């Protein structure tokens, strides 16, 4: 998870060292992939809904330097007539997991920026620090292992245990668990995997234990489902600022697509527009497996780049951003948005767990200057100060939020990714109304954020807000990511 202003994100910045022999891993789990009744077991279509919740506290700025470092803080605001939160917001797209016997239904964020899947555990004892606004949220369903007859702690000898402890010594989790040297050498130590802590880039921390239980996932059609009898996930008893569970969609062995057996294929999603936030009646498809990547040749594909530092996450290379139709209005991006240094720093992470796209300084400021030079509306510095966004405009409208002229007069923004892939963003993916019209004026702010040009971690993050109404295909077979603007509600 990468961290943000006004949003928390879920990019995991801990490095999980994978010591697992992946073929062994596949063997030991292959028999668990049962399908229920479906003509093809090679794909799974889940429903994604959009959720938006507010966190207390101040706006934080993304820093790639350290998971706990926040700069630029704004005081929480008295809300005016604002549609857009001025406080920190946790946005994300949810899927449902059915865990245990009998099944308990838990909704979790889908996060391409981490591997671990975890759920809040222990109904009354689950403790979320700095999550006050969530306390009465019905999303805060927790999993109770004691009510599941199939729940068990993972063991220290499990490859997942080694993975989560990021150990460079295969024996460490068992040493921590207090195994004797004899059982340790024989690999027969029966002790449970020691508890873990998992830190996200935005500063969120979760502490829990690795648990195995049965998992069922299915979409709107309940006859299409997938079961795993011994799914490994985090049973999390306490968190800092992470009130809702997370399904990791990274490439590590712990991730949900990995454990479902779809990692060699891929997945695709089409994120609903934010106007459907918190509407449980509408969902868009999250496709996992063959169906996600077949018949997609009409999409534009950009290569997946590989960072040595975070090999389990998805990186793409940004070459330029252009503003409007003028070929002159191209902002050249620094090379660290498409290249890594020898340690694997740099690159642009594509992360469904980060809300707004983050661009490094001074490139971010150049991009804003370019936009401001072609936009003729008056700035609203008051909104800029209040929201923490850097570019807000007063746009005339006719008392009706749907009849403003901005669609014509705000410039288009196109991201140019490697391999000649041009993604022209839908306008609502970057200029967002900050409130209802007032005095025949609507204020819209640019929802991009700057990121310190640190030399550690990713140089930029392509977030979920900029992925609304775009089909995004993660083709893990060919190591490429495809884009195509579309109306995701119509695909629901
Ligand atoms: C969802 O559908 C139910 C039943 O049709 C309806 O009562 C409810 O208002 C809808 N919710 C939203 C947010 O549209
Ligand atoms: C951009 O080009 C399109 C089609 O060529 C045109 O309709 C539109 O008005 C142009 N927009 C700007 C801002 O020049
Ligand atoms: C993408 O944009 C660049 C720069 O405007 C242009 O040269 C290129 O032809 C475009 N590629 C496609 C496939 O349209
Ligand atoms: C609304 O517009 C009128 C006329 O332009 C102006 O006098 C008034 O101060 C404005 N009110 C607010 C609250 O901005």
UniProtKB/TrEMBL annotation:
Q: Which residues form the Peptidase A1 domain?
A: 93-484
Which Pfam families does the annotation name? TAXi_C, TAXi_N
GO annotations of cellular component type: extracellular region
Does the entry feature the keyword Glycoprotein, yes or no? yes
Which keywords does this chain's UniProt record carry? Aspartyl protease, Glycoprotein, Hydrolase, Protease
Q: What family is this?
A: Belongs to the peptidase A1 family.
Full protein name: Peptidase A1
**From which organism does this entry originate?**
Macleaya cordata (Five-seeded plume-poppy)
